[in-house]
Structure formats: C-alpha cells, structure tokens
Write a structure and sequence with these properties.
This protein is α/β, with parallel strands linked by helices. The protein has nine helices and twelve strands.
C-alpha cells in the first residue's frame, strides 16, 4: 500500500531525472535548429541563349498573312492592335512582317526593310501595316504568297529562330502553285534546318462552319477539312474564328496559347535547375547583382516556373558576351 502522495512523488522524481539527463546533452542536440543551406548553381549565358535547354535561340520571326477583308477591316485592325500591344510587352527579341493574300502585292511590312523589337512605335506601325493589307489586293491566296515571299526574302529568317506564321482570310485558298499542306509544311521545316519544332502556324479565318454569316465573309466555304486546317494542325497550332463577337479577345488568346506552347522554347530562355526547389528562395545574379524578378512589362528580367522547376528569362539582352555567367541561389 502506497503512502499518501506516493505516485505523484514518483512522477516528480522521474521528470527531474529526465531533465538532468537532458541537460547533459550538447546545446545543439535538442534546442538548436540547423538552418537550411542555400545552394548555388552557375550557368554560362551562352548555353542558355543558344537553346541548350530547349529548341530555339530566343529569336522569334513572325509572319502575318492578312487577306483583303474589308467587311471585318475595323474589327480586325482593332484586335490586331491589342495583340501587338501584348506581344511587344512580353517579347523583346523578334522581327515581324506582313504580307497579303496576293502574289502580285509586295509585302506591307518587314520583309525588305526589317521591322524588329528595336523599331519605334511598333504597335502603331504594325496596325498601319495590317490596315493596308486589309484594304489591298484580294486574290484569296494563302499558300502561294506565303511560299513566294519566304523564298524572295530569305534574310527575313534568323538562324536558329522559331518561325511563327499567322494566316488570316475570309475565303478558301485559291493558290494554284502550292496546294498541298504537306508540301508547304515540308518547305517551312526545310527553312528551319529540318526542325519542325521551330515552325508554328496559327489561323484566323471566317467560314460557314466557324459561325460566320454570309455577309461577313467572301463566299461560302468550310474551314474544317481544308488544306489550311491540315497545315495548322500539323504544327500544333490553332485556328480562331474571324466572326467572334469579341474578335480582339480571340486574337489575344493566340498570345496566351503561344506563351504556354513556347514556354521552354523560343519565347523564353530556360534554365532547368534539376531538383525541386522552394520558389520563394530563388534569386538570380548577374555580375554579382541580383536581377529583378517579374514579367517584362513590369521591368522584370526573369520568372520562376514551379511546374518546369526552372528559371525562365524574359530575354537574354542583359548579356553581351558568350563567356558571361548567371548564378542562381535557392533552397530545397
């Protein structure tokens, strides 16, 4: 039989002994948390810029084919202006050209005289070129002027760049020399050294099966099943209806799709870190100075993509030499 208070006294003695034994451990055994160390990785700028981590070198060559669509001229020009505003804000290494849907008309912009990210008032200049094409000769050709102009102006293309083509018209293709989507695709791929990843074709068409009224387009035809659709689909592109009620939004959706598609290819330059990191701890240094993070429109030079587990540079214009390095620090 225990004396009164016996169990309580036993527990107190046990806790006192445990505390005394605990105090005999080193100070950092129980009470000091080890800080998580930063990891450092250094990359040669040349490796990033030349596409060592994905297709493309960061340069984007954009060719718009704009048909003579007087019915939708105002709506199209407004939507194109919105698209260009986004494009300029999010891309800083491009050149662009506009051609019409006729083999008789000369290019409206950017073929004989370069139109690039360094050109003044790019949105205004682009919209003026689109307007000229909308009101220009309307021969309802797609493939023929596309092939003709790329052959006639080979200097438009930049070595290692991605070629983005956006086709637009409100009638079927009446080309007579280039009529096969497969042949045109092979022509485009050959221009890019055989790398189909460097070719993307998108479309903005008006057709009966794209929700268009006959008063909005030139003649009745169906986009689905056409050679134009075959070419667009073969490059992983998309088509958007010319007759959407909010056409500007439709054009801007091209921008979003392009951003997703080329996230680790031509629009951006990507550094894959090779291990899962804590995004909030990532810092990028160039010449021992921390580079601003965020979208280009906000003055940022890089962003972190947690899905890719990579640092994504908005452009590589900050580095002028091939032997310069960027350093990334992070915690796991």
């Amino acid at each position: 039989m225990y004396e009164e208070g016996g169990p309580m006294m036993f527990r107190l003695m046990f806790l006192t002994l445990f505390a005394m034994l605990g105090c005999s451990k080193p100070a950092n055994y129980l009470y000091v948390d080890q800080p998580i160390p930063f990891h450092t990785a250094t990359f040669r700028v040349k490796d990033v810029a030349t596409g060592a981590h994905g297709s493309g070198n960061g340069q984007l060559d954009v060719l718009w084919l704009v048909g003579g669509m007087t019915e939708e001229a105002g709506n199209f020009a407004a939507g194109a202006s919105k698209w260009m505003d986004w494009f300029v804000a999010n891309n800083t290494n491009w050149n662009l050209a506009i051609i019409g849907n006729s083999i008789q008309a000369p290019p409206y912009l950017g073929m004989s005289t370069p139109f690039t990210y360094q050109s003044p008032t790019p949105s205004k200049t682009f919209t003026a070129g689109v307007t000229s094409a909308l009101n220009g000769p309307d021969d309802e050709m797609i493939f023929d002027p596309l092939v003709q102009n790329l052959n006639r102006y080979p200097n438009f293309l930049t070595s290692g760049s991605t070629l983005l083509i956006i086709l637009s018209n409100d009638a079927p293709d009446f080309s007579f020399q280039n009529t096969s989507a497969q042949a045109v695709l092979q022509f485009l791929v050959n221009l890019k050294g055989g790398d189909q990843n460097l070719v993307a074709v998108y479309g903005v068409f008006g057709a009966d099966d794209l929700g268009c009224d006959f008063s909005q387009i030139d003649g009745g035809w169906y986009y689905h099943g056409s050679q134009v659709e075959t070419l667009i689909n073969a490059t992983g592109g998309k088509n958007y209806s010319l007759c959407d009620t909010d056409f500007g939004t439709s054009l801007q959706s091209i921008s979003g799709d392009l951003g997703n598609r080329f996230h680790n290819h031509a629009f951006f330059q990507t550094l894959y870190l090779g291990e899962t990191v804590n995004p909030a701890t990532v810092t990028v240094y160039f010449h021992n100075q921390a580079m601003p993070q965020g979208p280009a429109s906000a003055g940022g030079q890089w962003q972190f993509d947690p899905q890719l587990n990579a640092v994504v540079f908005n452009d590589m214009n900050f580095a002028t030499g091939d032997v310069e390095d960027v350093t990334v620090t992070y915690k796991r």
